[in-house]
Amino acid sequence: MQHIIDRFISYVTIDTESDANSPTTPSTAKQWDLANKLAEELKAIGMEDVTIDEHSYVMATLPSNVDHEVPVIGFVSHFDTTPDFTGANVKPQIVPNYDGGDIILNKELNIVLSPSYFKDMLQYKGQTIITTDGTTLLGADDKAGITEIVTAMEYMIQHPEIKHGKIRICFTPDEEIGRGADLFDVEKFGAEWAYTMDGSQIGELEYENFNAAGAKITFKGISVHPGYAKGKMINSMLLANNFISQLPANEVPEKTKGYEGFFHVVGISGSIEETTVQLIIRDHDKVKFEERKVMIQTITDNINAEYQKQFGGDVVIPEVRDYYYNMKEKVEPVMHIVEIAEKAMRELGIEPLIKPIRGGTDGSRLSYMGLPCPNIFAGGHNFHGKYEYVPVESMQKAVEVIVKIAELTAEKK
Ligand SMILES: [Zn+2]
What we know:
GO terms for molecular function: tripeptide aminopeptidase activity. Zn(2+) 2 binds at residues 141, 176, 384. There is one protein chain. This protein has helices at 2-12, 31-45, 140-158, 186-189, 236-245, 286-311, 328-331, 336-347, 362-368, 392-410; strands at 48-52, 58-62, 73-78, 93-95, 103-106, 111-113, 129-131, 167-172, 193-199, 204-206, 211-220, 262-270, 274-283, 316-324, 353-354, 375-377, 389-391. With 413 residues, it is an alpha+beta fold. The protein folds into 2 domains: 2-208 and 326-410, Zn peptidases (Aminopeptidase), CATH 3.40.630; 211-323, Alpha-Beta Plaits. Residues 78, 141-142, 175, 198 line the site of zinc ion.
C-alpha cells in the first residue's frame, strides 16, 4: 500500500495545471515535468517502446507473454489538472483507518471535509484516505488513473505468470481543457480498444455520454428615441427574451438528470441594437439531440417571419456547432469491451456502477477517432476543488481491474 501512496504523491506534488487560453500543446510548459518523469519511470519499471512526442503524449508497451493471438488493448489517463482550482504546492494528507467522522483539512483556515455534506465518504470507513490540506485541489483527477496504470504494468512485469496480450498505455496533456484527444495519435497507439482510467468512485464504468453542441445566437434590433418609437423600434434584448422563453422551461440542467437532455443558457450580453445569447445543447439520444437543434431553427424562423417586413432581413442569426457525440454509438457494436470490464470488476467483488455520463470524456472523442474507449473509475471524489480525496483501497482495486482486464482479454476462447 505504501508503494502506491508514494507513487501517487510523487505525481500530485508536481504542478500540471492546464490553461485554456494557451494555444500550445501542452498548454503549460510545467506539464512536461510530469510527462518526462513518467517516461523515465516507465523505462525504469521495464516497459518497452517508451516514447514522448513533441506535444508531451507519453506512450509505452507491455509486450504480450502468450503465444496465441490477443487483441491489443490500451489504458489512458491525463496528467494535467483543471485550471478551475489551483494545483500548485499540493500537500497531500494521509488519513489511515478513516473513522467515519470529519477530517480537518486545515485547522488555521477552518476547512473540514465532512461526511455530513459528502456522504460518499462513509463507504470508506476503515480505509486510508488521501486528502488535500484545504488550499489546493488534490489531482487524483487524473493522477490516480496514472498511478493505477503504472502500478498495474509494474505488477504484470514482476508477475510473468499472469498471462496477457500486448498492452499499450498513453498519458495525455490538456484533458481538462478539452484537448486531450486532439493530438492523440490513434494509429501509433495501435490498440483495438482502450479504457480511460478517469472515472470517480469505485465501480464506475461508463460508455454513454452526451451529444453536445453550442449555439451563439445573435439578435438584431433598431434603436429609435423611446418617445417616438411606436412601430419603429426593435429591441434586440426583448427578442432574446422572447427566444429563450420559447425553450422548454423544464429542460435545463437544474431540472434534469439521468438521460434527460437540456438547453442551457450560459451567457447573454446586449443592447437595443444587438444582443448575443450563448447556449449549450446536451442530449444522450442522437434523435432528440438533432430535434433540439431543429427547435433552435424553428424558433428562429418564427421570430424572423414576424419581423421580416419591419426589419427588412433576419433579426435572429443562430450559429450552431457540434462539440462531441455520445460514444455509445461506437461502443455498442463492440459491447464485449464493456462486458470484459464488467466481468473483471465482478470477479474482484466490485459491483459495476454503469451510468450515463452527463458530460463528455476524452474517450468519447477517441471513440470517434477509431479507438472505442469506455471510462473506468480511478477512485477519487469531489474533483476540481479543495475537497477532492481518494481512498488508497480504491486505487488498489483499480490496479486489480486493469490486471484482470488484461488477463480476461488474453483468455483462449
Ligand atoms: Zn479527469
